[in-house]
Inverse folding.
């Protein structure tokens, strides 16, 4: 299995007044192509901070990160914000608990939005194809407010796929959904991983975690078990 992401001794320390919070405290791991990893752990253990570091949404205090063989953090030179933006667009799709759809845009427009900013060589499928894949073909002209929570999250997944990411990062993707809808999202994530996309998801849902290829448990910013 090809390694698509390598994290070594990642740390993130926040300074809160006189207190240092070691949100991520020396995490190392590799993720392979098509591998589905679940990150679990108590609230405040550093899961979101770790996911943001892996997805280059946040800079680590120390440690290194490579994505697709490209060194992002920990190298000699600090990358510019413009370079980082390009790395994010080429490599990552992001899914969040709260969906973050734009309420005034239709389903189709929401899905097209990242593609407006970037359509690289070999870019992903068309928004219409993604709508079909996610069972949303009858919702294209609807506004987010007209959708169920499960449908909103499927729109967010379609949006995350528009630029054909190698890695999909999901922070509690089923956190706002009932168990049936959560099961649907789980199935979609598995299908995507089977198709070769690396999926790393944070979840509180142990049923969902159990179906992952690998479970990493975080406690106090460290890998407690895997
Ligand atoms: P989780 O996602 O597991 O609930 P987080 O990664 O959100 O945990 O937070 C880990 C720790 O870092 C917590 O103690 C949290 O309060 C702290 N933290 C997170 N983000 C910030 C921030 N921007 N500034 C200061 N402290 C933060
Ligand atoms: Mg979190």
């Amino acid at each position: 299995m090809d390694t698509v992401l390598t994290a070594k001794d990642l740390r993130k320390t926040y300074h809160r007044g006189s207190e240092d919070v070691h949100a991520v405290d020396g995490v190392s791991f590799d993720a392979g192509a098509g591998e589905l990893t679940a990150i679990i752990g108590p609230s405040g253990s550093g899961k979101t901070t770790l996911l943001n570091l892996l997805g280059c949404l946040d800079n680590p205090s120390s440690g290194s990160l490579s994505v697709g063989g490209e060194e992002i953090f920990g190298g000699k030179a600090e990358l510019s914000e413009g370079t980082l933006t390009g790395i994010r667009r080429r490599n990552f799709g992001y899914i969040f608990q709260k969906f973050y759809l734009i309420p005034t845009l239709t389903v189709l427009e929401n899905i097209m939005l990242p593609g407006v900013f970037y359509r690289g060589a070999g870019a992903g499928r068309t928004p219409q194809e993604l709508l079909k894949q996610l069972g949303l073909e009858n919702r294209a002209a609807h506004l987010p407010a007209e959708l169920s929570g499960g449908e909103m999250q499927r729109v967010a997944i379609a949006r995350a796929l528009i630029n054909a990411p190698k890695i999909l990062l999901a922070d509690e993707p089923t956190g706002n959904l009932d168990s049936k809808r959560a099961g649907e999202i789980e199935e979609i994530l598995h299908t995507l991983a089977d198709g070769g996309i690396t999926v790393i998801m944070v979840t509180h849902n142990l049923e969902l975690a159990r179906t992952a290829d690998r479970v990493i448990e975080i406690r106090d910013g460290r890998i407690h078990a895997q």
